Amino acid sequence: MAHQWPNLTILITRMNPNLELRTLPGGKLQVELHGLDVYDPTTGAIRSNTTDEIACWFVDSDYNEEGFFVRHAFLRSQEAELPRRKT
Fold first, then answer.
1. 37-85 pLDDT, tens per residue?
2. Which residues pair with 18 in a beta bridge?
């Protein structure tokens, strides 16, 4: 879904992660991400991505289901080359 204002476009996308959540000793949580399904609002298609195609991920460690605030940002290593997309 796209919202239009003069000279500004905001795209809202829906992403569904394929993940495993495990509870470790001491109550800590461990998440293993296997892939991500992404809705592309420009084509209406759902695209499945592997973990090799994820450039970064963001965590809100205090998520309240009302607003998402980036509290931790993880970026891929510079040595890991992402596939180039044609525009």
1. 888 777 888 888 888 877 777 888 888 888 888 888 888 766 555 555 5
2. 35
Structural domain contains residue 75: no
> Do residues 20 and 31 lie in contact, with contact meaning Cβ atoms separated by under 8 Å?
yes
Long-range contacts of residues 29-35, Cβ cutoff 8 Å, at least 24 apart:
33/57
Domain range enclosing 17: 2-54
- Domain for residue 87, yes or no? no
**Is residue 62, in this structure, part of any structural domain at all?**
no
Model confidence over 28-38: pLDDT tens digits? Answer: 888 888 888 88
Contact at 8 Å (CB) between 31 and 39?
A: no
* Residue 73 domain-assigned (yes or no): no
Give how many domains the chain has, as a whole number.
1
